């Protein structure tokens, strides 16, 4: 540890009962039992950093919780963070507050397309992408990812076949959930070039951008920075909530350099009165962006250690389970085909025999068969316990 730097403790096990945590509350419904280690919803079991909690406490020292504006420094601290971390100069007018990225995806679908329009996504992918398309009565079109050398790659040949006169939007997950791919600049350039040929606007969900793992040798590239066309035809979403473990606050941002596109999107937010935030959204984002770098680095080092522990454990003890090693974030895509179970049976086996609550692969669409998604943003002792339970369950099956 460097002198004078805070040392954060990610080993502490924190009981989340009685907080209405989705991760715990929905176990019975999803896994058929409450008796599971919940390693599913993509939030962390680490303490939300102290500088964020303090920002909220400080605000609560004032006795009136009245109607409140976003502090103007919300914009400057967000754009400074993006410049420092992703080398992107975001002008003030490009940037706006967004009350959550999943809501933002739905707003974009509604603001930029009409019922019956086609929208392309790349499964297996974060499942709300499907919901915001289908529940808004748009047509879901898929460009499934391919797996090469243990990681996902885009299938550009297939993509070329997927555009029709009705294609109006592409929703990109950059970096990718559940595969943890940090798309390279070259891949994104080629991707943007194809979308340009077909003149299709892109929503780039970059919520995982600040979680590129130290072991990956990758760098996040905002899609909007790969070409002049992509800058003018991308709606980018970013947020401090995932990386700083405060998703319950709901605080994110949109960035749209093209003024016509921005107006269409912003007008939709305005018309729905969705362009303001709750009083904690701005102050927590600022606290995160202004104080969070050391915490972010230490958290990513810890998560990297968890991924390495998991990969070693599986290789040495349960080689039937093959993890896709993520380049970003704390979600690990597990290929369990060699366990010889159909996806539903596999999910039940994990829940009821191993006592582990993981996401079923098929909710992420095509390519999710025989897979589960495991969240490793937990104290190492919990992950060790999970692996012990899994090993026992697999051994007793044989
Ligand atoms: C790709 C992606 N987008 C969005 C979200 C959630 O965003 P929000 O909490 O801002 O709605 C997640 C959470 O896991 C995610 O993985």
Could you describe the 3D structure shown?
The protein is of the alpha/beta class and 398 residues long. The protein has two domains: 22-49 and 293-397, Aspartate Aminotransferase, domain 1; 64-291, Aspartate Aminotransferase, domain 2, CATH 3.40.640. The protein has 14 helices and 15 strands. It has helices spanning 22-25, 27-31, 50-60, 73-86, 101-112, 128-134, 156-162, 185-197, 228-233, 259-271, 279-291, 293-317, 343-353, 380-397; strands spanning 37-38, 95-98, 118-121, 139-142, 146-148, 151-153, 167-173, 201-205, 234-238, 252-255, 322-324, 331-335, 356-357, 359-360, 371-375. The strands form four sheets. The chain has a seven-stranded mixed sheet with strand order 2-10-9-8-7-3-4, sandwiched between helices. A hairpin with a 6-residue loop joins strand 11 and strand 12 (331-335). The longest helix is centred in the last third of the chain and has 25 residues, at 293-317. The radius of gyration is 21 Å and the shape is globular. The N and C termini lie far apart (45 Å). Pyridoxal-5'-phosphate (PLP) binds at residues 42, 100-102, 126, 173, 177, 205, 207, 239, 241-242, 247, 252. Pyridoxal-5'-phosphate (PLP) is lined by residues 42, 100-102, 126, 173, 177, 205, 207, 239, 241-242, 247, 252.
Please give the structural blueprint.
Elements: H1 22-25, H2 27-31, E1 37-38, H3 50-60, H4 73-86, E2 95-98, H5 101-112, E3 118-121, H6 128-134, E4 139-142, E5 146-148, E6 151-153, H7 156-162, E7 167-173, H8 185-197, E8 201-205, H9 228-233, E9 234-238, E10 252-255, H10 259-271, H11 279-291, H12 293-317, E11 322-324, E12 331-335, H13 343-353, E13 356-357, E14 359-360, E15 371-375, H14 380-397
Parallel strand pairs: 1-13, 3-4, 3-7, 7-8, 8-9
Antiparallel strand pairs: 2-10, 5-6, 9-10, 11-12, 12-15, 14-15
Helix pairs in contact: 3-11, 4-11, 5-6, 5-10, 12-14
Bound molecules: pyridoxal-5'-phosphate.
């Amino acid at each position: 540890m460097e002198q004078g730097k805070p040392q954060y403790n990610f080993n502490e096990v924190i009981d989340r009962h009685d907080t209405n945590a989705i991760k715990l509350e929905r176990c019975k419904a999803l896994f058929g039992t409450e008796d599971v280690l919940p390693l599913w919803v993509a939030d962390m079991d680490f303490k939300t950093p102290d500088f964020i909690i303090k920002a909220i406490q400080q605000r609560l020292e004032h006795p009136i919780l009245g109607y409140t504006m976003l502090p103007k420094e919300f914009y400057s601290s967000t754009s400074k963070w993006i410049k420092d971390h992703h080398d992107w100069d975001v002008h003030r007018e490009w940037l706006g507050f967004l009350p959550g990225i999943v809501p933002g995806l739905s707003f974009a679908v509604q603001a930029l397309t009409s019922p019956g329009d086609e929208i392309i996504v790349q499964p297996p992918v974060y499942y709300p992408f499907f919901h915001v398309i289908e529940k808004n009565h748009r047509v879901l079109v898929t460009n499934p990812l391919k797996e090469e050398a243990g990681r996902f790659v885009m299938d550009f040949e297939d993509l070329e076949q997927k555009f029709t006169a009705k294609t109006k939007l592409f929703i990109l997950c950059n970096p990718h959930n559940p595969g943890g791919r940090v798309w390279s600049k070259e891949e994104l350039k080629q991707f943007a070039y194809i979308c340009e040929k077909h003149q299709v606007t892109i929503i780039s969900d970059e919520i995982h951008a600040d979680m590129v793992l130290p072991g990956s040798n990758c760098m996040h590239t905002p899609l909007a920075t790969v070409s002049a066309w992509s800058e003018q035809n991308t709606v980018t979403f970013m947020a401090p909530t995932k990386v700083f473990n405060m998703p319950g606050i709901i605080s994110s941002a949109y960035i749209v350099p093209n003024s016509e596109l921005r107006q269409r999107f912003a007008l939709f937010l305005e018309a729905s009165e969705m362009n303001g935030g709750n009083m904690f959204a701005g102050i927590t984002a600022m606290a995160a962006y202004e104080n969070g770098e050391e915490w972010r680095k230490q958290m990513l080092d810890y998560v990297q250690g968890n991924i390495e522990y998991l990969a070693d454990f599986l290789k040495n003890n349960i080689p039937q389970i093959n993890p896709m090693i993520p380049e970003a974030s704390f979600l690990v895509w597990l290929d369990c085909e060699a366990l010889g179970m159909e996806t539903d049976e596999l999910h039940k086996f994990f829940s009821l025999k191993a006592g582990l609550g993981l996401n079923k692969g098929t909710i992420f669409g095509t390519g999710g068969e025989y897979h589960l998604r495991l969240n490793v943003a937990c104290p190492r002792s919990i992950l060790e316990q999970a692996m012990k339970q899994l090993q026992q369950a697999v051994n007793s099956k044989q």
